[in-house]
Amino acid sequence: MLLDTPLCEFGWKAPDFTLQDPAGNSYTLSEQLGDKGLLVMFICNHCPYVQQIAAQLAKDTSLLMDEGVKVLAVMSNDYQMFEEDSPVNMKRFARKYGFAFPYLVDENQQVGQQYDAVCTPDFFGFNAQGALQYRGRFDNQGMSGSDTRVPELLNAMRQIAETGQGPKQQSPSMGCSIKWR
Q: What 3 state SS string does the chain have?
């Protein structure tokens, strides 16, 4: 089911969490907040919207990470029902696309629920204080692709890193619904 994310609730505070990647390494949000901000993304392996952007997502997030922005990805889907999203397949997917960021398993779906994540991909851009400044789309291309790409997420996170504030105009992300139990 195709869904759009709600408008950005500027200033909303990021709920803290600790999740593990498929290898068992733990990551805590509060420890990942940096002075240039933090991007938390809800993604999965089987969603065609995520698959469409995965290679460019790896490139854009690598740029952000090189510039000091921290990045975490969370997979909240019920992977018992969607084997493609299992931790083993998360490792394969991350390797295939060259993800440099931690790709975390939300086993009990609690983090996805706390964030009111709606779809994959769903992007949350926080400033250094953990206040939400971006909840928009990846870029202007979507599934159709346009002649000129505008990297809206990349631009927004760079603005947040520089000013602590996100852009006032944001277009919602769209993607597959999160697969809740």
A: CEEECCCCCCCCECCCCEEECCCCCEEEHHHHCCCCCEEEEECCCCCHHHHHHHHHHHHHHHHHHHCCCEEEEEECCCCCCCHHHCHHHHHHHHHHHCCCCCEEECCCCHHHHHCCCCEECEEEEECCCCEEEECCCCCCCCCCCCCCCCCHHHHHHHHHHHHCCCCCCCCCCEEEECCCC
Token code pair at residue 56:
């460019």
Q: Is the pLDDT of residue 13 over 70?
A: yes
Q: Which residues pair with 42 in a beta bridge?
A: 74, 122
Q: Which residue has the tokens 């420890």?
A: 31
CATH number of the domain at 102, please: 3.40.30.10
Range of the domain at 121: 2-177
Domains: count for the chain? 1
Q: Which amino acid is at 83?
A: E
Evaluate if residue 74 carries a pLDDT over 80: yes
**pLDDT, tens digit (0-9, with 9 covering 90-100), for 120-135:** 999 999 999 999 999 9
